[in-house]
Amino acid sequence: MADDILIAGIGGQGVVTAGDLVAHAALAGGYQVKKAEVHGMSQRGGSVVSHVRISDSGAIYSPMIPDGAATWLVALEMLEGLRWLWMLAPTGRAIVDDRRVPPTSVILGGPSYPADPAGPLAERGCILCATEIATAEGAPRAANTVLLGALSVCLNLPLEAWRRALEECIRPKHLDVNRRLFEAGQDLARRTAANLLTG
Q1: What does pTM read for this prediction?
Q2: Count of alpha carbons within 13 Å of 130, Cβ hemisphere only?
């Protein structure tokens, strides 16, 4: 198995934590892993991207995913999903939160937020109500965990590896809610996102 996973969002959404979780799960599952982050003006709500490359069959020479080669795009905001959609391989799939956060340029009167960001994204995967689910559990900033639960259904990593990753990456006081949200993401993917597996 080899997967190149691009995780995209804005500062404060837990992009780096999500990348850490995937990397830890892959390591716990016995895979080789390389990981890198690219930070924009993350303290001001700028774009943040995490590259996670995993393989069980050969060396990984660079932590950066080549252009147009990502097998998975996990986007924590719809505009960020559109921004990085070009990184997907022809058979790559997207898992996107339906949250919309207008960037500073839009707020200041620049280009408008896309009227229908869902269309192009839905064609390449699925759009999930991750923030809504996390907010209902009192943890809106843990929407990333919902999306990773959905991703876990699609990757060939054992469930125990994901459980270990949660224990290693999440603070103890937040662990229980993140476990619930991870399971909610798995359930949501199984119920509503069959196109993720069929492509």
Answers
A1: 0.91
A2: 32
